[in-house]
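Human:
If only I could read backbone structure tokens as easily as an amino acid sequence. I am handing you a single protein, as its sequence and its fold in token form. I hope you can help me see how the letters and the tokens relate. Thank you; the sequence and its tokens follow:
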Amino acid sequence: SINRFKLEVISLDTFMIPASKSLTLTDKIPNGNIRNYKMIVGCDGKFEYHSLLYFNVSSLPNNIIVANAELTLFKCDGFHNDKSVEFIIYPIYDHFSIYTTYFRIPSVDKFRGTRFYPMTSKSTVTADITRIVSSWIKNASSNKGIMISNVWNNSIASFGSSSAKKQQIVP
């Protein structure tokens, strides 16, 4: 008898998917939103800011297994070391558009939030969003985007948005 084995090779391809939409919502402008080259996240003691991002993953094969997915944000300010300031990324349940406002903020999946700590001296910060992206691959219609929030600390951070003029700083 001949012994055989089957070898399945997993291709570890890397895909870079830039954000195609971004928006900042704030109670400072409750009936509007902010759409410019940067997103603002956090709380300044008076107002809270939440940023929304959307990534079009429809070009990815639906049979892939996501080994690792990282969100890279390019910082526009907040270059200091304070590892106690925690931000959270949530998948959102509703699509957003230029008409989305703080008063019509999308609901989030609070059980699948991912924590990260952006207050570093580095120019970029990464967050592990593997669980979120894996769910988008398994069920494409679940991809409505993500919300980045921090309302527990009086800290504000701004990051490059999908509208950034320099492609290198688009999330």
Notes: Residues 72 and 126 are 4 Å apart (CA to CA). The mean pLDDT is 88.
